[in-house]
Specification:
alpha/beta, 11 strands, 10 helices, 8-stranded mixed β-barrel, about 45% helix
Length: about 325
């Protein structure tokens, strides 16, 4: 009797593992059956790859890799390849300057931060003189550039021929935008004409052209001078290439090219956005004027005595 308890304990312990093993085997059977169902699909794919000739497989893979590389080049390298081209002409201000232009300038906004105008003034007597500057004044119907007032005053104080531009918003009423620019910018004799910066098409091309006409005519009526139209080469060609907009002085934005491709008349060319000027810590847009310094001055708002002189000359000629 003393030996019976250990025997019964042993018997119980032997039965328990058998029950566990039966459960495990059932699970293992299910998993093995599921694997059998999945394996044929994988085998079919592998068989297809094996049946495909090696040279076709590698040709397809090579073609896909080539397409990826070509797309990467045209999207990320080709548009900026001009930055890395060797400069065989005049290099200054961190870029290769366009050949054949003597009058240089730049344009700024609050993105350039605090500007040292005393340092910039030295460029007026540099080997490649910087004579003029445009600066952002307003955008849409209610946004004023925070740096405009200071920069506009400093530019005149340091002897630059200055101008102001408005960034157009197609979603805002054109007349409202024109009136907002008029309230924001007090142009004086010697300043360049006001500039309309148009870069966004909006939803309706016909409405855009009509609204731009409203802005331009209202500004010309107020300042008594024809505004300058600023936009990219592609935008002008696609949307604003007609007799109405061609009558306005054109400031073309066309980067990373040796020469302007636009066949029409233009006065200013913004040729890069990575210029480096002393007194400005950030990269800056650089421009050239298509003409002489005297021609640039004749584009500005005339002084009263000049208006009187021109009027008297017309009277005498009659």
């Amino acid at each position: 009797m003393v030996k019976q308890p250990p025997k019964t304990v042993v018997n119980q312990s032997e039965k328990a593992p058998r029950k566990r093993t039966t459960k495990k085997t059932s699970v293992s059977r299910r998993s093995s059956s599921s694997k059998k169902k999945i394996q044929p699909k994988k085998k079919k794919k592998e068989e297809r790859r094996r049946n495909l000739p090696a040279w076709i497989y590698y040709t397809i893979m090579g073609g896909m890799a080539a397409l990826v590389l070509i797309g990467f080049y045209y999207l990320f390298i080709q548009p900026y390849s001009y930055r890395w081209k060797p400069c065989y002409g005049m290099k200054a201000y961190g870029v290769c300057l366009p050949y054949g232009f003597d009058i240089h300038g730049f344009d700024i906004s609050h993105h350039q931060g605090q500007i040292d105008w005393g340092e910039l003034q030295k460029l007026q007597t540099a080997p490649f003189p910087v004579r003029f500057v445009f600066m952002k004044a307003s955008e849409g119907g209610d946004f004023s550039d925070t740096a405009f007032v200071r920069n506009f005053n400093e530019a005149r104080k340091h002897g630059f021929i200055r101008g102001a531009y408005h960034f157009y918003n197609p979603k805002t009423d054109a007349l409202r935008q024109a009136e907002f620019f008029i309230r924001s910018v007090k142009l004086e004799p010697g300043d360049l004409p006001p500039v309309l910066d148009i870069e966004v098409k909006g939803e309706d091309e016909k409405k855009l052209r009509n609204d731009l006409r409203i802005w331009l005519q209202r500004i010309e009526q107020y300042y008594k001078i024809k505004p300058i139209l600023y936009t990219s080469y592609k935008f002008k060609t696609r949307y604003l290439n007609d007799s109405l907009f061609n009558s306005y002085p054109y400031w073309i934005a066309h980067y990373y090219v040796d020469s302007v491709e636009y066949k029409g008349q233009w006065r200013f060319w913004q040729h890069t956005d990575i210029g480096q000027l002393p007194g400005i810590h950030e990269d800056v847009d650089l421009n050239v004027f298509n003409g002489s310094l005297e021609e640039l001055r004749r584009m500005t708002i005339p002084f009263p005595d000049t208006i009187m002189t021109e009027a008297s000359q017309k009277t005498q000629s009659r």
